[in-house]
From TrEMBL:
Subcellular location: Cell membrane
Main location: membrane
PANTHER family: ABC TRANSPORTER PERMEASE PROTEIN, INNER MEMBRANE ABC TRANSPORTER PERMEASE PROTEIN YCJO
Record-level GO cellular component terms: plasma membrane
Superkingdom of origin: Bacteria
Keywords for the protein's UniProt record, in alphabetical order: Cell membrane, Membrane, Transmembrane, Transmembrane helix, Transport
A Pfam family per the record: BPD_transp_1
Record's protein name: ABC transporter permease subunit
Listed transmembrane segments: 50-71, 83-103, 132-154, 189-211, 240-262
Residue intervals of the ABC transmembrane type-1 domain: 46-258
CDD domains: TM_PBP2
Membrane topology, record value: Multi-pass membrane protein
Length: 266
């Protein structure tokens, strides 16, 4: 009810457009889609969305996996670290964005103060068109990897210890154990996290909305933010729904490829 109904409702709404002749919306068929395919703003948003996901998804998966390996290690005080590593996840998105906006401020932000203290130039970060998207990738990664690492940690703890003992007896090094034991046994966890990260980041728009409003120069204007603006700023629910349907199809296509190439072999 809560997943399929909105999809079909969005598909239906994408066939309508605001009518200035009466209070109801007019049926326009595929016109919203044809307008999108000739709209440079849509193509710019699509490019930003793909660019954002090309970088943020593998970065989050790799760092989350490395963090899980650290959390799974039998080190002194690792229990303390397991507690504090989850703090960024517990912080709400809006609070995290406000804090990072303060820290990355070009004038009085602590990050630029540290750069100046090291003799380096101040950076625009969120206020520069060449750095804004990268800054949001960094913020999203800081916020998310602790959460995804929990799933990897659960997968690591399911790997039988006997496999490591047997490979150790055979003279396998730690790297060989990782390649021959850990990674193959983690295929399902990797697939789950990769798919979940992809879906989550394709739908992500809160940091862009809170921190940059899609700017500077549309450099952070992802499809979800463009859809939000269409619906709530321009009152064009038909265009907004068409964007969401295209985004849904794009996400499903990428997820299908991920299942195909990451599916665990029995």
């Amino acid at each position: 009810m809560f997943k399929l109904y909105p999809v079909f409702k969005g598909l239906e709404d994408s066939f309508y457009a605001p009518s200035f002749l009466n209070a109801s919306e007019a049926f326009v068929g595929l016109q919203n889609y044809s307008f999108l395919f000739t709209d440079p703003v849509f193509w710019s948003s699509l490019k930003v969305t793909l660019l954002f996901n090309v970088f943020v998804n593998p970065i989050q998966v790799i760092l989350a996996f490395m963090l899980a390996l650290l959390l799974n290690a039998k080190l002194k005080h690792i229990g303390w670290f397991r507690g504090i590593h989850f703090v960024p996840v517990a912080v709400s998105v809006s609070t995290a964005c406000i804090l990072w906006n303060i820290m990355l401020s070009p004038e009085q932000g602590v990050v630029n103060s540290m750069l100046v203290g090291l003799g380096l130039d101040q950076q625009p970060f969120l206020t520069g068109s060449k750095q804004a998207l990268a800054s949001i990738i960094g913020i999203a990664t800081w916020k998310g990897i602790g959460y995804w690492a929990i799933f990897f940690l659960a997968g690591l703890q399911e790997v039988p210890v006997s496999l490591y003992e047997a490979s150790s007896i055979d003279g396998a090094s730690r790297w060989e154990q990782f390649k021959q034991v850990t990674f193959p046994m983690m295929k399902r966890s990797i697939t789950f996290v990769a798919v979940s990260v992809t879906v989550s980041n394709f739908l992500l728009f809160s940091p862009m909305y809170i921190l940059t409003q899609g700017g500077p120069e549309h450099s952070t204007n992802v499809l979800m933010l463009e859809s939000y603006n269409s619906a709530f700023l321009y009152s064009d629910s038909g265009r907004a729904s068409a964007i969401v349907i295209i985004l849904l199809l794009l996400t499903l296509s990428i997820v299908a490829l991920q299942f195909k190439f990451l599916k665990a072999k029995h």
